[in-house]
């Protein structure tokens, strides 16, 4: 696949190359590094930038046996056999033109005569020289002398950093690379530019790298192109059979215990493989494990093996590992993977256990594979339940429902019935969006079950269903009965922590909500990996609604450690939690990135009720930054998938976001009306914490009528945030500039930056009304500094109330974006205007504010002492 791959800047190395080629200390440079790190590309770029008479040659294995092999073609037809005469003729030909630069690629492959000629040219300073040498290979003494004797500067070229690797791939793809995918590609390529390029092209060819919602995602194995395979096979083919067997075994079981590998391949073979640098032995928890030195070796070996050979090798590994004690989930998963495509047979119980383990570790695609294997081996409702659980998380709602609906509930015992029914209710409610049918199935199984502990589990599930249907009191009452019973099993506690914790958080009873989620944490080892994120969302919500942002951040990042290819859904959930905290804090640029990636990772064909709040937070972030079109599109997406199955996020919270969208469009009066309507809806459904948020939103938009109502809520619900919101509303209603300044400082102290910016902007307006110009300017500077910290926010308060700086609304908007660190091009793209228009507004803003450049303007907008000179 022919694609244009851009150059990624290696500023430091390129500067050193240029200095060595143009200065007096050295006559050139030798670049060393692994194959594929970009030595030749960088060398050619440097030589081209210097200019002159450039003569490029390349050392090869075939030319190594020919005296003066790489330079022979420059001498022409020459019959002399005297090496000295031959070298003199080559030298004369090389230096026929002035300002000669000699480039030698793969100088480690030079024959002795060519290497000697190169050293002579360097010693005599007769020409500038650039060489590339592959690390870890034997190098002729004359080439080594080039840098050891100080003729050439040696630069060791390292692989790309992760940031550079992402930049390279995104430049080629022309779009954003999912962070989870970036991690996988970085790990697979090791930052090697050549490997990275072929991984991307191979994945594109195999259609495992696809763009979803504007984000490029890798789903499945990172394919290797035939070209890259050929490059790596050159090294593999030189390996002895015994070493090759080590690699073949490791291909299907990495990492593998050193004792197992020695048993299957022989100790001598393992030692030889380590000596050749194709494997490494690492210690992990007092266990010695064998790993590839580079993961792509496994892909090359995999391509070389036929189906029969691969099945036989897996079978050998399975037979060996089966004799050993299976201690952990990882052991069971590895054994099941080997059995799945081997020439050995495995029992149903192994696949069911491995599926349970994989789902528990949030590797849902792998859990699905094992569950299908169990179903194919005549597994019953237990295997079907595992398959349905894996399917519903991936949004395959129809197949999940079909899998479960094939069983007659009258033929199931109570344990089977509860397991079957719980999964079916989850699929119907949260993935299919069919709340009516979910309620029917839940009622059916609750009516049939008599065992006390199973009934408690179903009561916990009822709590979770009720909270999503926005029946908060029912959710709390069911959860409280579970939580108050010491006999409640883990899944009962977890469902109650989910339903009751979210209900309490929305009611404004944050302390009780945190007690519930703490109980949930105690049993999470018994719960599926992805399920753990749902009560964690309730905990994050409780913390953000009370203003405890530091604790919310810790909670949101607690589960961010997913790296296996099949764990992309867990990565997406984690990103969603982080984005939720970002938006609550006013870190909108970070929040948008996290939430966009979360939604792309979680995209599926289902209703996916848990995506609803992520879309609301994303729309809020867009609106806060003055991007109403994107906010409207996101609101439409949320509305299209909403319904009774997600009513808890419906009218109250959706109403607040719609108010923000109206404000972003500049229609403040409708925005206030929408915010007050959302507050009323929240009050009707007992979402008092959300009611407080809605009322404070109206105050931030300029409404003076909510102070009393917020004061009543501050006396009834938990948290410092609502207390500050109430004081802010009182100060706004009385045009109390100092009181608004105090509220801004308090909001900033707890990390709620956009509320702080709005309060400071309103303070500036109040000081102007009172004729206090000194405080007016101070408050205006604070508002601008905070707006910049929010990524260049553009709220009604910032646009309409903070008018002391003599700027138009567009000039202020652009100046805020400059303070946020955006370039003119980025600002133009953000506002959909030309760069020239941006420059014109910046010029007029600088004139009005008496500053000389955009840096000084940014300092002023941030409320900092200007770094640039003032105009005289």
Give a quick precis of the structure.
This protein is α/β, with parallel strands linked by helices. Among the domains are: 11-156, P-loop containing nucleotide triphosphate hydrolases (Rossmann fold, 3-Layer(aba) Sandwich), CATH 3.40.50.300; 383-450; 452-548, Serine Threonine Protein Phosphatase 5, Tetratricopeptide repeat (Alpha Horseshoe); 805-872, Arc Repressor Mutant, subunit A (Orthogonal Bundle), CATH 1.10.10. It has a 5-stranded parallel sheet with strand order 2-3-4-1-5, sandwiched between helices.
Question: What are its keywords?
Answer:
single chain, 872 residues, alpha/beta, Rossmann fold, Serine Threonine Protein Phosphatase 5, Tetratricopeptide repeat, 45 helices, 11 strands, 64% helix
Query: Which percent range fits the helix content?
Result: 55-70%
Which runs of at least 5 residues are low in confidence (pLDDT < 50)?
A: 868-872
Tally of DSSP helical segments = 45
- With strands numbered from the N-terminus, the spatial order across the biggest sheet is 2-3-4-1-5
Q: Rounded to an integer, what's the Rg over CA atoms?
A: 33 Å
Through-space gap between termini = 59 Å
Under CATH, the topology of the domain at 11-156 can be stated as Rossmann fold
The shape, in one word, is: flat
State the total count of DSSP E strands.
Answer: 11
Proportion of residues in extended strands: 5-15%
Mind telling me which CATH architecture of the domain at 11-156 this is? 3-Layer(aba) Sandwich
Structural class: alpha/beta
- Whole-number mean pLDDT: 86
Please summarize the sheet with the most strands.
5 strands, parallel
């Amino acid at each position: 696949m022919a694609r244009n791959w851009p150059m990624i800047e290696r500023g430091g190395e390129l500067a050193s190359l240029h200095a060595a080629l143009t200065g007096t200390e050295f006559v050139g440079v030798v670049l060393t590094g692994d194959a594929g790190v970009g030595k030749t590309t960088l060398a050619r770029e440097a030589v081209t930038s210097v200019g002159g008479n450039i003569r490029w040659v390349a050392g090869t294995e075939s030319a190594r046996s020919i005296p003066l092999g790489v330079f022979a073609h420059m001498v022409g037809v020459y019959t002399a056999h005297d090496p000295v005469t031959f070298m003199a003729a080559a030298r004369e030909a090389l230096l026929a033109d002035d300002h000669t630069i000699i480039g030698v690629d793969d100088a480690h492959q030079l024959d002795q005569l060519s290497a000697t000629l190169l050293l002579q040219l360097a010693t005599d300073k007769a020409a500038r020289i650039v060489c590339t040498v592959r690390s870890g290979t034997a190098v002729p003494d004359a080439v080594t002398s080039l840098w050891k004797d100080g003729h050439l500067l040696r630069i060791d070229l390292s692989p790309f950093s992760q940031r550079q690797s992402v930049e390279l791939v995104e430049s080629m793809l022309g779009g954003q690379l999912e962070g989870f995918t970036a991690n996988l590609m970085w790990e697979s390529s090791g930052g090697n530019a050549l490997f990275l390029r072929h991984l991307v092209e191979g994945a594109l060819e195999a259609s495992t790298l696809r763009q979803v919602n504007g984000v490029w995602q890798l789903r499945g194995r990172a394919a290797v192109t035939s070209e890259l395979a050929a490059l790596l096979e050159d090294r593999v083919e030189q390996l002895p059979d015994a070493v090759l067997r080590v690699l073949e075994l490791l291909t299907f079981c990495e990492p593998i215990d050193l004792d197992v590998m020695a048993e299957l391949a022989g100790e001598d073979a393992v030692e030889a493989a380590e000596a050749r640098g194709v494997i490494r032995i690492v210690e992990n928890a007092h266990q010695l494990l064998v790993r590839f030195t580079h993961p792509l070796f496994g892909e090359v070996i995999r391509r070389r093996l036929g189906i029969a050979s691969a099945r036989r090798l897996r079978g050998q590994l399975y037979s060996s590992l089966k004799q050993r004690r299976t201690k952990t989930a990882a052991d069971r998963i590895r054994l099941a993977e080997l059995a799945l495509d081997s020439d050995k047979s495995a029992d149903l119980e192994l696949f069911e256990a491995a599926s349970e383990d994989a789902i528990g570790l949030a590797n849902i695609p792998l859990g699905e594979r094992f569950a299908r294997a169990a179903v194919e081996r005549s597994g019953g409702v237990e295997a079907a339940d595992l398959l349905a659980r894996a399917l519903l998380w991936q949004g395959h709602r129809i197949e999940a429902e079909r899998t479960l609906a094939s069983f007659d509930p009258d033929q199931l015992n109570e344990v089977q019935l509860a397991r079957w029914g719980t999964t079916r209710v989850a699929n119907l409610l949260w993935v299919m969006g069919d709340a009516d049918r979910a309620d029917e199935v839940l009622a059916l199984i609750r009516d049939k079950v008599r065992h006390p502990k199973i009934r408690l589990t179903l009561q916990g599930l009822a709590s979770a269903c009720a909270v999503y249907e926005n029946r908060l009191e029912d959710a709390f009452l069911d959860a409280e009965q579970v939580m108050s019973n010491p006999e409640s099993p883990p899944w009962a506690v977890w469902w109650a922590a989910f339903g009751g914790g979210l209900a309490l958080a929305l009611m404004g009873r944050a302390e009780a909500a945190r007690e519930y989620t703490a109980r949930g944490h105690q049993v999470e080892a018994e719960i599926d990996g992805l399920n753990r994120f749902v009560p964690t969302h309730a905990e994050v919500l409780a913390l953000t609604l009370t203003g405890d942002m530091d604790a919310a951040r810790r909670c949101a990042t607690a589960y961010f450690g997913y790296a296996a290819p099949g764990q992309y859904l867990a990565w997406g959930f984690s990103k969603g939690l982080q984005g939720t905290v970002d938006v609550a804090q006013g870190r909108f640029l970070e929040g948008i990135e996290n939430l966009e990636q979360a939604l792309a990772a979680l995209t599926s064909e289902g209703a996916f009720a848990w995506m609803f709040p992520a879309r609301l937070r994303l729309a809020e972030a867009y609106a806060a930054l003055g991007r109403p079109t994107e906010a409207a599109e996101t609101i439409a997406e949320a509305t299209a998938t909403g319904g009774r199955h997600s009513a808890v996020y419906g009218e109250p919270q959706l109403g607040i976001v719609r108010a923000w969208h109206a404000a972003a469009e500049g229609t403040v009066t409708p925005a206030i009306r929408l915010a007050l309507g959302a507050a009323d809806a929240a009050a009707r459904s007992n979402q008092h914490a959300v009611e407080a948020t809605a009322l404070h939103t109206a105050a931030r938009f300029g409404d003076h009528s909510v102070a009393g109502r917020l004061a009543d809520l501050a006396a009834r619900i938990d948290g410092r945030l609502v207390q500050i919101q109430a004081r802010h509303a009182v100060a706004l209603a009385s045009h109390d500039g100092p009181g608004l300044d105090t509220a801004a400082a308090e909001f900033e102290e707890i990390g709620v930056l956009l509320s702080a910016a709005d309060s400071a902007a309103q303070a500036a307006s109040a000081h102007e009304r009172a004729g206090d110009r000194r405080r007016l300017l101070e408050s205006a500077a604070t508002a601008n500094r905070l707006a910049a910290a929010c990524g260049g926010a553009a709220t009604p308060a910032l646009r309409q109330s903070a008018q002391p700086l003599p700027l138009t609304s567009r000039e202020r908007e652009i100046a805020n974006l400059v303070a946020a660190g955006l370039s003119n091009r980025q600002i133009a793209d953000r506002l959909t205007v030309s760069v020239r228009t941006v420059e014109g507004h910046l010029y007029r803003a600088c004139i009005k504010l008496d500053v000389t450049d955009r840096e000084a303007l940014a300092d002023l907008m941030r409320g900092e002492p200007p770094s640039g000179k003032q105009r005289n």
